[in-house]
Amino acid sequence: MLTTISPTKPVVLPHFVLVTDCTVIVPTYNEAENIGQLIPRILEHDRFRVLVVDDGSPDGTGELVAEMAHNEPRIGLLRRPGKLGLGSAYIAGFQRALAEGAEFIFEMDADFSHDPGYLPGLLAAAEAGADLVLGSRYVAGGGTTDWGPGRQLISRGGNLYAGLILGLPVADATGGFRCYRRQVLERLDLSRIRSNGYGFQVEMVYRVLQAGFTIREVPIIFPDRRVGRSKMSRRIVLEALINVWKLRFGRI
């Protein structure tokens, strides 16, 4: 005789929740040719979401990101009325990411000079205990490609200059591919950050060290941008040179 056994308790299937505790901040100005390809590469990693901070790009970058975000909750967009500067874009992005609960907050460029494939490595170093992880061009295994002698001189010279004046124990303080643990950005007074060009990266390293946090560098290969024009200018370089001395003497 066939006996049917009815379960006394309901069968509960395992429920898997997608954890997205990593926010990648990408500042943009006229990056429509790159951003549509970059965002899917970042989102290949399940724990990551993207926050684009667009400074009123006239080429439609903001509109493109808004369209992509319509059906993808892991894409965020912060639109600003015009070119307000790299540093202020990152500060605004940090504040939004913290408010949304991110545990690990990343910086990267929109032009594919920062390969999204390095993101898990930066995260692994942060999870291993580093408070700030720098994607470094100037440690063993790192490097640059497609750069002329002039750009090499400016980049390496800038790092040497900042390192000597500020006593920075890192090889690549000017790079913009990095990961912060949440506690670092919560501890720092972001309203004190004054550099708004590429000197912003140097100032953040300096502030992190001043606050007693640990920094680790992991090697990356940094190619030249795929398309579009570099945002580097003489004014940005001059600001960085001056602000290093202001930091040294506590003027900012």
From TrEMBL:
The keyword Aminoacyl-tRNA synthetase does not apply. It holds the Pfam family Glycos_transf_2. It comes from the Bacteria. Keywords: Glycosyltransferase, Transferase. The keyword Cytoplasm does not apply. Residues 23-188 form the Glycosyltransferase 2-like domain. Signal peptide: none annotated. Belongs to the glycosyltransferase 2 family. This is Polyprenol monophosphomannose synthase. It comes from Candidatus Chloroploca mongolica.
